[in-house]
Every structure is written in structure tokens, then in C-alpha cells.
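Data availability excerpt. The first of two example chains:
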Amino acid sequence: MIRFYFHPTPNPAKVALFLEEAGLEYEVFPVDTSKGEQHLPAFRSINPNGKVPAIIDTDGPGGAEARVFDSSAILLYLADKTQRFAGKPSDRPELLSWLFFISSGLGPFSGQAVHFQHAAPEKIPYAINRYRREIERHYRVLDEHLSGREYIVGDEYSIVDMSAWGWLERASRVLATDAPLAAFPDLHRFFDTISARPAVARARAVGHDLTFKREVDEETRRAMFPSNYPEITR
């Protein structure tokens, strides 16, 4: 059984997609990050970094419970555990390269683009331009790489495609436009291909029966951006 610590945001969405694709048995444990539940000691014992997603595998290596945090680490762990969606052995160097391209570039820059456009108390043109342009550059790298390719690595659907899908799913919010992939036709085609998979519909439905705080108030800002509040010790 996988205990899946979840909030309806892009990184948990990647893990939800893997779980649905693999047909693994899992239970969702909501973590309302807008209320600060990611900072509670019980969750910090699972992820010391206080972020979602995280999992507890009750049947980990040697039959012992295993905790795994960070979406890329979780995807790699589950791919190795199930021997699915990890590509061919010869693809491993490419798989690792593109997975970390997403986790160290596309993901963080997307998050910062969202922050400075939608959450920051001051709209700083330099910051907004900086992160939007970096997202466009990352999209362009993927768009060029996907020319003549169906998937990012090799000729098989893999965890890299799931990881990219998680953030591309929010591209309209990342770039604050209704047609964010219009300038990237191969990336757009790739996103449509992944989105057509039956497991994507199931992954999108994960957590729809749960209630999460939507209001952005002082509690939310302190929970989501504690480093902006020097008096808060986490």
C-alpha cells in the first residue's frame, strides 16, 4: 500500500499519474498547504523539507516501510519498484538527464513564474519577465527535442513524460495566457498525446472529493512563504 500525501498542485499530480498508470493500491492523505499542514511535526517526519508530494510505501525494501519525498525521487522509486515506465536500460542516461532537467529547471522556474505573476504582493516587471522568459526557453528546448519524437526519452512512455505533463498541465497559469503552447507545436502535440491517456483523467480526479482552502489570506501567505516572515521559525 502506498500512502500518498497530496495537495492539488503540479508535483503531486505527477505522482498521481504514475499511481494510476501502474494500478498501484494507494490511499490519499490530504496536506492542506494553504493552512500550513506541511509544517506540522507529523508531516515533517515524512518530509523534513515540508513540501508535497511524499509517500510512505508500507511494503518497501525488505518489507519495511519506506518514506520517499520529492516528486522526481518518488517517480524513480516507483519505477524501479514496479519495473515500469523507466525506459530501456540503454535509455537510463537520457532518462536521468531529462528528469533532472524538469526537476531543476522547468519545475522551479514554472513555480517562480506563477509566484511573481499571481502571488507576490508587488508585481515586479524584472522578476516576471525573468521567469516567463526562462519558461519559454525551457519549453523551446523540449519543443526542439520532441521534433520527430512521440516521447521525451526513447520510444516508450516513461516517468519523464509524466513529470513534464505535471507542469505543462498548468502552462496557462505559468505563462498567464489562454494558449501557452501555441508557439511550441511539438510540445503541444506531446502534451495532447499524454493528456489523451485514460490514466490522466483518473489522475486529474484525485482529490476532487477533498476540501482544500482556496482563500489567499495572511494565514496562507505565512504557510506558503514562511521565509518571507523572519519571525517564523520552521
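And the second chain:
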Amino acid sequence: MSELSKRAAPEAGRLGRIIDKGGYVFAAGIVLAACILLLEVFLRYVFNSPTLWAHETTTFLCGLSFLYGGLFSVSRNSHIRVVLIYDAIGPRAKRWLNVAISILSLIASGFFAFACWIMVTKSYWTPTGAFRMETSGSAWNPPTPALVKGFLFLILIAMAIQFLILAINYLRAPADRALETDA
């Protein structure tokens, strides 16, 4: 694995480095979810005393981690691309393709954030305007659906900003740098 694939892409800027470091928190969330599941198995099968909260908590932690993973891959420039075309073009064309991909992804992230905002307003406020977070409806009934939707909204905003930073930095970089930053 190259040194470049172990950290944020240089074009991702300061935000990319912050996002990259934040990945450790969400990786710890997956480890915590695994520990909770292990505890749940132990409590259920050894003491015949399952919890009400384990399944929803692990689903919540893993869901947040997966959402953050999309932002994390953007900061590392490790998103999916059609390399058959990308690898066949020269550095100058790659630079412009990186700019175009970043701008299109910025637009898509913005549209998704707008759509997500509609979901967030419905999950945080009643039709009368009173604040009430949407809950899961289970016996434990935590507000995890509202929290996940709010987190998704924030991730999409951060992703749009990250794509803007990438587009600007790809435009500012010399054409021959395109080869150095490919994931």
C-alpha cells in the first residue's frame, strides 16, 4: 500500500486532514459495536437476560460509521472511478476530469443535502412546528432515526464542501500533479 493511500489526498486540504483523523473515532465506533454485540450474546445465552438496547445501538453505531466512510473516501480520493478511461488519458486530461468529477459530485452532494434537509425537518419537528425527534418505535424507543438523518445531512454538507475544495485545488495544481494524486 502506498504512503498516499494511508492519508488524505493533498488536494483535500485542511478539511481532508481533519476528516481523515476523524476516521479513527468512527473506526472505534465499529469496535464498540462489536463489543456490545459480544456482551449481548453473553447476556442472552449465559444469563438468559437480553438487553433492549444492544441491537439498535450497534445498528446506530455502524450506520454512522458507514455514512462517515463516504466522506472519508472523498478526503482520500479513494472513491470509485472508471479506471479504464481514467488510466488511458494524459495528465492534463486527468486534471480536467478531476475538476469535472469534483464539480459534478459537489452538485450531487448539494442536491442530496437538500433532499436530506426535508427528511430532517420531518424527523425533528411535528407538522405544528413543535420539536420532537423521531424515535424507533421499539420497546427502548431511542431517537436514533432522527439522529442518523441529522448526521447524514451534516455529512452531505461536509462532502459538498470537500468536493468544492478538491475542485479548486485541482484547478490550481499543475497538470503533471494529476499522476501523483491518483488513488
